[in-house]
Write the structure tokens for this entry.
Amino acid sequence: MLFSGRLAAQDAVQKAKACIFLFLYGGPSHLDTWDPKPGSQYGGEFKPIRTDAGFEICEHLPRLAKVSKRLAVVRSMTSPEVDHGRGAYYLRTGFRPAESVEHPSLGAIFGKELAKDDSDIPPYVSIAPADELVHSAGYLGDQYAPFIIDTPGEVPSTLSRSESIPEERLAKRLKLLRKFEEESQFEEESRAARLLHDKAARYMKGPLGKSLNLALEKDSVRDGYGTREGERTAFGQACLTARRLIESGVRFVEITMSGWDTHEDNFNVTRGLCGELDAGMSTLIRELDSRGLLDSTLVVCGGEFGRTPEINEQAGRDHFGDVFSLVLAGGGVRGDQVVGSSDADGMQVGERPVTFPDLMASIANLTGIDPDKEYYTPEGRPIKIVDGGTPVRGLGGGT
């Protein structure tokens, strides 16, 4: 039996307690992943396969086809932003970029709304290559910024106490630092620094280091998240890290998988990327389910926009925001369905357009976060959590 028998309970209202966001940076082609168009003029080289749920996806996602009864594939995403930076900002925050304010990412909102301030594990973790874009907590401040990991499987040295510094000496140093901060004439800056130092000390003593140590997993488990040319993939190991972090109490994990900006050689590049995505995401969903975590953990997978149906002279596809796809699973999402559609050639939305604010409103609905709640910028400006989006009907969470 593929799943643990909880599918019958999907019609009940679930409230996700955590989220894993698989960010496919660069913008994957919907035609070459979740919305194939066999026989159309822009269909491309890949063939479709039928999923266990009955709809079709790309032939290079066979493992995800086997867990499709847990997937909701949204084929009618649309966005006016087709610049990588602006598109990533819009996806992560639900707001289009503005000069006057920097909005918090979804991970920061999860941290503020669903985590405890005195936790010994970070509420928001970003797993991303060192040279990739990681969004901050915006006007919410550094207290809600992500804990960043650039190499999955390795425990950052910042979490370990140097062997040359005994525990007693470290405690004295922290006590002295606190005294300096309390006596500082810069009260606001000192308070912010004190919060960060206290948080760092809690993380060093808490379960974070153990959660990041993939050597504690069996080789068969690590290999199951995907290998390529005999080596474990960084994306797969990041997915395994995310599962371990969720188990330890982290509320939001964002994994950045880059390489989807396929202006050239789209089909060869996408074939390899789909193989990594297929192994990592499908195993993540299976393991979350077998450990009783999938119903309370929302999994979101998508990029900042899509790619043109037209194939350019370099055998690539270019930036495209008119229509693209995104996938959700777990966390109260009603799987076994396709939401919306693109037209026959994948050029425009066919039915039920979904925007990033709509996605944010849907996630708020699935988690019980109030989308109309207002935060205040340091200047006192009120801003709602969601920029006017509407939850997607039928996706889950009571809609």
User: Anything to note?
Assistant: Residues 7-153+214-384 form a domain with the Alkaline Phosphatase, subunit A fold (CATH 3.40.720.10). Residues 55 and 338 are 8 Å apart (CA to CA). Confidence is low (pLDDT under 50) at residues 1-12. The chain has ten helices and 18 strands.
